[in-house]
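Please go through this protein, sequence plus structure tokens, and consider how the sequence yields the tokens. Keep your notes short.
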Amino acid sequence: MVRKIHTKREEITVSGKLKEVITVKDEKGNIIHKTVYPIMVEFYLTDVMQVIIGSSILAMPIAFTEETWNLGSSLPMLNVFSIMAISLLFISLFVY
């Protein structure tokens, strides 16, 4: 016997904050499960700092290799800062 399950997603406001409600119903319309998830729409300065700190922590093991130091001593400063900015950007996106 195959059960038909219907899922409904809706967004509601609870205490001024957006939430996503996912309701799972069976074929008769009875609610099987209801889940509420917060929707993150704000991005504050503290969030930026957490991303920067987290990405820096992930980048630390690479910073202590000899190859990195040799490459850094032979590259022009513009290239070093460009590589650093791109690395922090990619790691920040990964952490976020």
In short: The longest helix spans residues 45-63. Strands lie at 6-14, 17-25, 31-38. The mean pLDDT is 84. The first strand starts at residue 6 and ends at 14.
